[in-house]
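hey can u check if this looks right to u? its 250 residues, i copy pasted from the old doc so theres a chance i mangled smth
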Amino acid sequence: MALFKDFTGPVSSANNPLSDESSGKTFGEVIRTYQPKPGVQWRFGKPNYARVNKSYFEQRSKRHPEGSLESIVSIVVKNWEVDTHHVADAKDWVTCDINGYKFSINDDPATMYDAQGMADAGPYNALLQNVPGKYDFAKHTFESTNKLFSETFTEGFAWECLEVYSGPPTVTCKWRHFGRFTGKYVDSNGKEYSGTQEMLNLYGITVAIVDDNLMIKELKTYYNPDDMIAPLMRRPVQSSGAKAEECAVQ
């Protein structure tokens, strides 16, 4: 998603498309074709994807031919991300069939969301749920979790489609989410961890059911949420008291 500090423009924006930096045009390749609904209310302001796009183009592992299934799926998912992260009212989403929309993780009924439910919870909470002792979605709002991960991945947390196994109407793809841990992470108990500067690579499979216009009707994602959080907890920040005790022992 666009980083929490990188929103631009007014919350209300009529027929105001994403910038060329956000679409990818200035990088030489359009990776988002999102066109907001007239008069849309942006959640925080119009998103600016320049920073995460820079990370995407520099660190992606695949460059798919224009018009390939992988390229098309990538654009569909990146457009979907604009809706689900940045448009608070699901009725204003332009990438989904909101009447029957369903989202779930690992075939767990407890993770099932409809469109507005996902808009309220936010994609991070919907994707992560509860990782015991590491991340608790019940302690986060949409805003707090976006701020948390914007401060974790300060260069952005990009997404790429690696391979598409089946085409519409049931699209199955393998993906990679990636970003350098350059900031800090705070776990569900309030403990802080400093960045390792290492690249975090998260892999998964998503099955998307779409209509003839590639509007998303259902998303079923399969991955291990702990693979995202565990690498963020390798370098705990010690309290001043702990540091003083350590020095005394040495």
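The domain at 7-238 is CATH 3.10.450.50 (Nuclear Transport Factor 2; Chain: A,).
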